[in-house]
User: Fold histidine kinase from Alloyangia mangrovi.
Amino acid sequence: MARRGALLPRLRSAWRLRLMLVTLGALLCGALAWQLVIAELRQGLEQGLLVSHRALQTEIDRFRYLPRVTGEDARIHAALNAPSDAATIDAANRYLQKIATQTGSGRLYLLNAAGVTIAASNWDEPDSYVGHDYSFRPYFTDARATGNGAVYAIGVTTGEPGYFISARVDDPGLGVHGVMVVKIDLRPLEQAWAETGQHIAVTDKDDVVFLSSVPAWRYRPLTRLPGATLDRLDASRLYERTDLGSTAPLLPKGSALRIEGEGRAMTLRGTPFETGWRLLAASPTWPARAAAAGTAALVLLAGLLGLGLADMRRHRRRLISLRLRQTEVMERKVRQRTAELKREVEARRQVEADLRATQATLVQSEKMAALGRMSAAIVHEVSQPLAAMEATLTAAEFGLSRAPEQTAARLQSARGLIRRMQRMTKHLKNFSRREAAPLSPISAVDVARSALALAQPRADAAGVQLQFDASADTPMVEAGHARLEQVLMNLLHNAIEAVEPGHGEVTLSIERGAREVTLLVTDNGPGIAPDVLPRVTEPFFSTKIGGEGLGLGLAICFEVVQQFGGRLDIRSAPGRGAEIAVILPVLEQDDEREAAE
Assistant:
């Protein structure tokens, strides 16, 4: 009995200790639940602040430069120069009314250098701004001093709040000429915040709430304002018809994290905005209190129930063992997943490396294919002069004894063919090395006739009619005769290949302007597809399977014309043929230059 009597107080002490531990654990769990819910609320506030910040910034940026752009109009300067001219003021009023209607910016008005409104978009309304003096407004004084101004205020004329953005209108001879102001209505943002259930507020640089989804917060300071600040706000009349001095602040205790609203404590988050503004978001803390109380009650109840069980140790050991096993399983799964992720990362890196290698191989293959096509075209063009030269030399051999004069002509023709091949190879060499070949004054008509003569055999073989149209005068350009001839031949050959054999027509015309000469090649073919037209001048791009013609291609033609100081203009419509214009600057003659000097 004595031993049992001594054991009973120790059991009671153990139960009291266990009860205290359970109670303490319940309080700690409640505090943890409080912190977790508060963290979630703050995260939601951060997201809401981000969205609201972007919405507010977007709404302001829509009209940020409207005063500056509007102030550059001649009607605005005319109104500032002649404020007593009724017609000038009427033109400015209607211009501002039209701009405000089209942009949806609200009110747009013009102040003279003294701050008096001389023109406004609401000139024909009962609450017109015309004639009112707003020289006391900060947006006027800031714009006169720095060139720009912005402030949120309640209108002294209409009593409607808005965001005023101003820009100074300068005159080169007079300096400050006036100030252009736009008034933006930001109240739709308040309505949107209220409809989504958010508690959003925007404060100015004096911590006065001027925009809020909660009407009770509007035009109230966060903390009590100093007397100098109240005097400055009264002088500027920013918050007309409000009494900031007697209004209770939203943070009476100076707390930056809690605010009293709608009879419930709320947590507060803020982010800075432009011109000293601050965007605030608040959320009720009752979910955190409810979570903390519920968690603490559940933990306490579980502890009390556990204390009432006789086999608490056994269940506790089983629970610990189960948790240990769960932890081991989770760790094993985490290690497995980490290894899988590592393998996936390595596989993706290998795939990316293979993809880059494949892309490089494809680019190189395309380049090599383009070089092959160019080489085939060069061989084709060189083979014709070589064959002609061989025939000419053979005829010259037979005619050495019979007709020396004809033999000399044939040799001269062979020499011309050799020079032609030299010019072509020299041009290709200069182009590949990006070297500028010498330029000289040449006649565009002579080059055109030469190119037509060279392209005539191919046109006759294809049954295509070649036409030439040139003005009476002969324009002179500064270019290379052989290269310009090759450009025109390439364009003529492309046109001949594009038209229908037997019914095709290709025209080379020359038009002279005041400062430019246009050599235009047109055809009546099917035209160039719209999806192909932007790429026809790209290097290595072709719709042909094999190389033909001079091997220049439109990309080389484009480069050659640029070397001449000109440009290549390509126009086409499906079913209407193609027009390719070589536009070169006219070479001024010596007498024209002397006359210009």
About this structure: The chain has a mean pLDDT of 78. The domain at 436-595 is CATH 3.30.565.10 (Heat Shock Protein 90).
